[in-house]
Every structure is written in structure tokens, then in C-alpha cells.
Amino acid sequence: MTDTIDNKYVVFKLEKEYYGIPISKVISIEKMEESTRIPNAPSHVKGVINLRGEVISLIDLRLKLNLKPKEINNNTRIIIVSDDEVLAGLIVDSSSEVIEIDKEVIDNTPVSSDNEYLSYVYGIGKLTDRLIILLELSKILEY
């Protein structure tokens, strides 16, 4: 992997905040579609979809990050990601862009032992016009 891909992130929104995941982990971005519910799955697992022959679990990122649920609308997207052989779809409010964030402008996550949310974050990208919360995909994909 070269440095040019290492500092590119797919940016999406949840509520009013911007989040990013490394583009190297993103397979595609899809429109929301009907899913099949899985009995006894955690509440943040919304079900599975069949995408081009692959069965993919859908994770509602709002629920995973303890945000309020939101109705699905025309902007809702599924970001298909892959991390260490795990394939999943992350349901987000909207997907906005791919941006480059230099390592020099990424701050470490604030430290707090009692905030589970922070374990999903590995850094904060500081851009001139906004902050991007960079997610630790391996932690997000843990059930």
C-alpha cells in the first residue's frame, strides 16, 4: 500500500458530525435496500443483504455508536467495507466525499476509560473547515 492511499478517507455523516474510514477498507457505497433480519442478533445488526452474490451483514452505525436511531431516507447509504476477511455494510446518514488527511493533522483520541464510544475512534482529522472523526474499523466490526 502506498502513502497516497494510506491518507485517503471516505467521509460520511451521522447526525451533524463527519466520520471517516480509510478508503483502502471500502469496497463500495450502495443505496439502502431491504434486508433480511437475523433472529437474536444485536440491535445494531439490522440484518443481511445479498449484494452481487455476497451475503453481507448490515450494521447500523448510529446504534453501534449509541446515537439516536433515524428513519431511513433517500440519503441513507450502505458503505461496504472489508477488514481482515470480515465483510460488512455500515448504514450511515449520507456519504459525502473522499478526502486526503495528512498524518500531521490527525490528533489522537481523547483518553477516557469509561467511554466505550472512544474505543471506536483512532483519531480526529483537523481540516480547515471541520473535524473528521476517524473510526477504528476493526473495533466497529466486532460483535
TrEMBL record:
Gene3D superfamilies: CheA-289, Domain 4, SH3 Domains. It comes from Tissierella pigra. Pfam families: CheW (PF01584). Residues 6-143 form the CheW-like domain. The lineage of its organism: Bacteria, Bacillati, Bacillota, Tissierellia, Tissierellales. GO terms for cellular component: cytosol. This is Chemotaxis protein CheW. One of its GO terms (biological process) is signal transduction. InterPro entries: CheW (IPR039315), CheW-like_dom_sf (IPR036061), CheW-lke_dom (IPR002545). CDD domains: CheW (cd00732).
